[in-house]
Amino acid sequence: MASARIQPGQPYPLGATWNGRGVNFSLFSAHAEKVELCLFDRGGAREVARIPLPENTDEIWHGYVPDAWPGTLYGYRVYGPYDPNRGHRFNPNKLLIDPYTKALQGNLHWSDAHFGYRVGSTRGDLSFDRRDNARGVPKCRVIDPAFTWGADRPLARAWDETIIYELHMRGFTKLHPGVPEGLRGTAAGMSMRGVIEYIKSLGVTAVELLPIQAFLSDRHLVARGLANYWGYNTIAFFAPEPRYLSTGSPVEFKTMVSRFHEAGIEVILDIVFNHTGEGNHLGPTLSFRGIDNASYYRLDPASPRHYVDFTGTGNTLNLSHPRVIQFVMDCLRHWVVEMHVDGFRFDLSATLGRDGSDFDASASLFDAIGQDPVLARAKLIAEPWDLGPGGYQLGNHGPGWAEWNDRFRDTVRRFWRGDDGQLPDFAARLAGSADIFDRRRRRPWAGVNYVTAHDGFTLRDLVSYAQKHNEANGEENRDGHNENYSANYGVEGPTTDEEINQLRRRQRRNLLATLLFSQGTPMLLAGDEFGRSQQGNNNAYCQDNEVSWLDWEGIDAEGRQSIDFVRRLTSLRRRYPILRCGRFLHGQEEIDGIKDISWIAPDGAEMVAEHWHDPSARCVGLMLHDTSMRDGGGEEGAGPGDVLLLLFNAQDEAVTFKLPSVKDRPWRWLDDTSSYEPPRPQRHGGGETVQLWARSVALLRLETETDERRE
Predict the structure, then answer these.
(1) Residue 282 pLDDT more than 80?
(2) Which residues are catalytic?
């Protein structure tokens, strides 16, 4: 095998770094005895050089290869003890992916050779496999990081202005008629003007992308003709998934980010630092396991052959190790500084807060992020749970963090389904979940409200199916959540019964209006704005097909009306800042005798304990008074002093609601969910009764002297 010249190089930065004359290679491994850099031909099929890294500084192996250029393909072979009972799984027969690689070429082709042990051996993972797996492993590629960003800067949009749109980059563009076929499913496809203009037209301010870091499709899924569609199986955290790049270059992703920024839309990445794609002790040896298993993973102290598994995926990254914390911090800074993303949603973030076995909001990684001048300005969103002890940590992350609020999801679903006893909790969710987040000077935006997300039913399916239908996943419908708080209203799945369909459409509108009129940060699932269905599948993680892809050409007239309805809702939220207040409202502040928040019973009086304790109560009014001292705030006609009245009726019949009398001024009817069409202009005097339709929401505004002068 050919060799190449190599010099000592430098331990930092980690990874492969081109300096214009050559490439510095640097790899951390505390327990390795030798590290070989393997270079490949342009196609990645033939290993053309194998070079021992000549230096080790502070447990970092490094070397510099003169005359190496961007585009160079490489991997590592790492030598050391293969002793699973002591936590070591070195096997130099396995080509390993650099944890710091910025780009990959090719995809993983599964075979038994990827496992460090002999698959099928009676000794299991205690055996040792000598087969070379290089032909089936993606190759790391040296990149030139240069990119002309021009005037692009972080948008730094205020949290209280933020509306998140969660989407899957491949699924969003795979069937999009405005995206050339060769670009569908890629960052280039997401960059198309029509795609971005559509997203902007919805009134959302940020896209939250499901994982786009390079990931694996599990072997058992591939064997069944399926794939890990969602991507929560990362193997190369610095590198975009090769299948999402039509050009193969990370420049394509940078271009996408810059175009979203030009449209005023932030880009948030769903990122997975709780585990890797290497699985449990019987998983493949592809990167971290073969580089330094005992450092990168949390091992069972009583049996280091096995992994601590807080994630349900077989392994847990060892985020109490300083080099692993450094790895995560370097990765986050890379995506912010080099790729210009605006924030992150951290999958199973409770795991990231476990220096020991218990969750701690001041765990090492969280403290490191909080003091970092780059990351402290990024949007940080936690999925605040995992499968470890005390794994449900909603509300327990520190200042500066937002958190997915599943309490909002479940309560809002149950209220509109008509469950008994939901009104008090429903009111708390509408008001920003102060019972959860109002501590340590946190603000209502800390709660990311959602009714649907990628994990679970779509909005249409939520009101069309009483049970999950995951048979296509090949797990006999055992996977996915069983308690979805959904309803079918008489028929399971699609129906020609127009009365049921009308009710389902109205329930979708109710759920959307509740989401966008609640205090906190709303998150909308892509496709819900026009009624996308997954045919009742509430766990489509392995469905890289029409089940998950957005069917743009299938949007009918009703779907287009629904899109316009969502645009109206986001416009109202943007126009009236009191719908997205930057502080918690407790009814303790008032101006001109009007409290900042009041709860109104159908008789027009303030709610009393008797109303709250009635388990059958399903109707309530929420009056909000903008008592802020800011100048302006919303769009024309809105600002400090606005008084809004939201009416919610989850009953099966209409309710006569008496409007509260406030300053002898009339109420103007702004919008409601009785249909997709905007309502006719209406005025109602204080003390007047109105008919609130069965299962509906209405929004009214107290008129002001300015309104009278304008007219």
Answers:
(1) yes
(2) 347, 383
